[in-house]
């Protein structure tokens, strides 16, 4: 069986916060039945990566108000030249010039953006979102969507039906739908049919279903379009690596999910795997 030391690993779904803000963010989440696996800072996550031998992490931002976008992106921009951390810009649909923010992010060198239907109060298929998607597509950016359930939210904005409707209009192969396409109750994951473009990630999904169910779900979507991700610091890197390595994927499938698929999407060097 493949071990994490035999292939590079990209964690495609990580959150870090400014050092001064991280303790407050962690405290706000820890009132839920959730655990933090780092101190929420970039250096704290780099320590987790070092402990697990992980090459690279993609940093995602979720500004919940328009006023948070500029400081969040200013914080993330410091990692644009970091060899191990790849930041994605944040944008909020209610920003006065959301399209301009997306274009500026591309000019600065960001590889993608993150959108969160629940926390930013939109449905993926809403027409008001189309100019944001059009701008991101024109710039060739990766677009990561939160999907499914979330803490403190009764409604699901980002269900399988929502994305089905979005993808009837958009066939963009650089969309990433997080959390294995979402689930309404953190247990029931959607079945997939042909037609979704782009990728899924595994963030906050490992360990929540029987091994054979996970393997079949991933294979039904297409192993070459699934990305390893943790949702760190809210899932543990060591724990999720151990889980994905043990559930029954072949070595070839693991190399694709742990590194190859993300490297292709991000334009990184092909995997220099060791047998």
Give the structure's gist in a few sentences.
Helices cover 36% and strands 11% of the residues. The chain has 275 residues and is an alpha/beta fold. Helix 4 runs parallel beside helix 6 (130-139).
Strands, count:
9
Taken as a percent bin, the fraction of beta residues is 5-15%
Query: How many structural domains does the protein architecture include?
Result: 1
- Structural class per helix/strand content? alpha/beta
The CATH class label is: Alpha Beta
Biggest sheet record? 6 strands, parallel
Topology (elements, then pairings):
Layout: E1 10-14, H1 22-29, H2 42-52, E2 56-59, H3 69-77, E3 85-87, E4 89-90, H4 98-108, E5 112-115, H5 117-120, H6 130-139, E6 142-145, H7 160-169, E7 175-177, E8 199-201, H8 211-221, E9 226-227, H9 237-246, H10 251-266
Parallel strand pairs: 1-2, 2-3, 4-5, 5-6, 6-7, 7-8, 8-9
Helix pairs in contact: 4-6
Report on the structure:
This protein has a single domain (4-266), classed as TIM Barrel, CATH 3.20.20.140. The protein has ten helices and nine strands. The chain is α/β, with parallel strands linked by helices and 275 residues long. The mean pLDDT is 91.
Tags for this entry?
single chain, about 280 residues, alpha/beta, TIM Barrel, six-stranded parallel sheet, three-stranded parallel sheet, 10 helices, about 10% strand
């Amino acid at each position: 069986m493949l071990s994490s030391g035999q292939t590079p690993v990209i964690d495609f779904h990580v959150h870090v916060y400014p050092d001064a803000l991280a303790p407050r963010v962690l405290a706000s989440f820890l009132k839920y039945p959730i655990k933090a696996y780092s101190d929420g800072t970039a250096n704290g996550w780099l320590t987790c990566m070092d402990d697990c031998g992980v090459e690279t992490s993609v940093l995602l931002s979720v500004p919940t108000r328009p006023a948070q976008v500029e400081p969040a992106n200013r914080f993330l921009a410091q990692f644009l030249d970091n060899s191990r951390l790849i930041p994605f810009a944040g944008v909020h649909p209610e920003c006065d010039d959301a399209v301009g923010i997306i274009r500026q992010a591309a000019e600065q060198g960001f590889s993608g953006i993150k959108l969160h239907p629940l926390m930013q109060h939109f449905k993926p298929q809403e027409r008001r979102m189309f100019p944001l998607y059009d701008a991101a597509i024109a710039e060739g950016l990766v677009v990561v969507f939160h999907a499914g359930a979330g803490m403190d939210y009764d409604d699901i904005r980002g269900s399988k039906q929502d994305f089905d409707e979005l993808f009837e209009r958009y066939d963009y192969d650089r969309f990433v739908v997080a959390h294995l396409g979402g689930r309404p109750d953190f247990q029931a994951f959607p079945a997939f049919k042909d037609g979704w473009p782009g990728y899924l990630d595994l963030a906050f999904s490992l360990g929540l279903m029987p091994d054979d169910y996970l393997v079949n779900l991933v294979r039904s979507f297409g192993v070459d379009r699934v990305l390893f991700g943790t949702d760190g610091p809210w899932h543990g890197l060591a724990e999720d690596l151990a889980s994905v390595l043990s559930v029954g994927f072949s070595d070839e499938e693991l190399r694709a999910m742990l590194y190859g698929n993300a490297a292709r999407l991000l334009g990184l060097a092909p995997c220099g795997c060791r047998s």
